[in-house]
Amino acid sequence: MNKVMDYYSTFDEWGRLDREPLEFQINWHYIQKYLPENGSILDNGAGPGKYAMKLAEKGFQVTLTDLTPKLVKVAENKAKELELFNQFNGFHIMDAKDLNSLKDKEFDASLMMGPMYHLQNEQDRDAAVKELYRVTKNEGVVFVAFMSRIRHALSSLLHPEMWKPNNTIDNIEEFIATGDFNHQDEGRFTGAYYFDIQEINPFMESNGFETLSVVGSSSIGSLLSKEQWDYWTKKGQAEVERLTELLKKTATDPYTLGVSSHLLYIGRKKDN
């Protein structure tokens, strides 16, 4: 986990979501659709707080947690910069597997938009989701991000030298069997776990959630090259907005989920 923390201490995650806006736009579209009208929200594993700031702008009281101290500080400074600091109940350095200072059934809704990417141990994945369940109120909605195993296998086949050791068929086959990925090159995205899409709903449901939706966070837009995006951009802002709306609509098509590198699970906590 130290390598993961080192990676995020130097990587510009806020900038990534700005450079690749489709993921954020689609996720935020569906998050807003299922959010309560008001209340207290947990952004667990929030990184620099991109989603947390939007929640604060909408008037929610937000609690932010992340494992990486630098990112928690970035989020706190960003809240001050945007004059949203008073909308936050706290900025905490905390492990998603052990939200020890948060109370049972404290939040009307909870986000976990990153921790599941880096929990390679099954017990750790269970622990994180159980903690999310514990701190969310009954009937509260949760938003949990996952990474797609089949999409990363495709990326490895398309760009093998970018995703070493997935530059041999033997290693890609092993990855497909396990979902674990540890980048061979120092400083790259590593210590990762990718889910089989068909396992996401049963995994969450076995931990007490009712499935509401699964979203492909970049929809079929993930298949467009820079040149293809440029083609539509040159047609003007109105056409780009129509394209974005189209991609939002197709994001929940179960037959295309596998083309998205990131997936958003939306579920409701069942009464216990």
Walk me through what this model shows.
This protein is an alpha/beta fold and 272 residues long. Helix content is 43%, strand content 20%. The protein folds into 2 domains: 2-148 and 195-269, Vaccinia Virus protein VP39 (Rossmann fold, 3-Layer(aba) Sandwich); 149-192, no CATH class. It contains 11 helices and 9 strands. The strands form 2 sheets. A 7-stranded mixed sheet has the order 3-2-1-4-5-9-8, sandwiched between helices. It starts with a helix and ends with a strand. The model has no long low-confidence stretch (mean pLDDT 93).
Question: Can you tell me the CATH class of the largest domain?
Answer: Alpha Beta
Gyration radius over CA: 18 Å
Shape, principal axes of CA atoms:
globular
Number of extended strands? 9
Largest sheet: 7 strands, mixed
Specify the number of helices.
Answer: 11
Helix coverage percent: 40-55%
Order of helices and strands: HHHEHEHEEHEHHEEHEHHE
CATH fold-level assignment of the largest domain: Rossmann fold
Any low-confidence stretches, pLDDT <50, length ≥5?
none
N- and C-termini, Cα separation: 32 Å
Decide which structural class fits the backbone.
alpha/beta
CATH architecture of the largest domain: 3-Layer(aba) Sandwich
Name the strands of the widest sheet in spatial order. Answer: 3-2-1-4-5-9-8
How much is the average pLDDT?
93
Q: Name the CATH superfamily assignment of the largest domain.
A: Vaccinia Virus protein VP39
The total tally of domains equals: 2
**Which range does the strand content fall in?**
15-25%
